[in-house]
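Predict structure. Chain length: 262.
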Amino acid sequence: MAFAVGPRAAKAGFRVRSYEQLDSTNSEAMRLAALGEAGPLWIAAAEQTAGRGRQGRVWQSGAGNLATSLLIRDQLKLSVAAALGFVAGLAVYEACAALAPGLQLSLKWPNDVLVDGGKLAGLLLESQSVGDRLALVIGIGVNVTAAPEGIPYPAVSLAGLGITVPAEHLFAALTDSFALYHSLWDGGRGFTEIRRLWLARAHGVGGAVSIHQGDIIEQGIFETLDEQGCLVLHRADKTRCVIAAGDVYFGDARTAHPGVVR
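Prediction complete.
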């Protein structure tokens, strides 16, 4: 399977390295960064054997699913560059919407793409300093042909929804969508517009959510995102809580976790 970036991405200077099999596209991107690769470079694999998700979780990605990572080397601060996760989320959303119209897609903070509440895609941002620049890797996994089994949340695949889309076609559409939103983001100067577009596609805004942060659970109404991309929670006691990271559960999840609810 050969992957190629779309025409918009190619014009914007994005390249791709295509592999039949890798342990992890994120790991390969970091290895290339350490060897001097400057990016922007997509890494795409027909099969990934040791993918990973947030907080060290395993990300299952068999043959036929899309496993890809984007390496970007920049002098931006990590706090600014981390907002590229929202750029990537929008890009995955739009690529799936273009190739599979009619899906009830939504974005889950901070890094998932859902269809009718089931996880279709996930993102993982990793970074390290290489020389005088930040090496940022945005890993993206999309369930194209199969959804993982035995996981503690609902997951869906395009094939399971009756949609046949080759992973390489989805990849090309994704690279073009990312190039578009990356240009709009403009080194962080356009994050206000990225934030607006992301919120318009977000799942659960205005509804009850529980945010799990280790043994602590924050509950309230998902009000908005702030200008740094943090989730703003409106608690029952009328106070607001700004959350930078955590696992989101929709509705009242007080019994779903043994932690302390507040």
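Summary: The helical segments are 7-11, 25-34, 78-81, 84-99, 167-185, 191-200.
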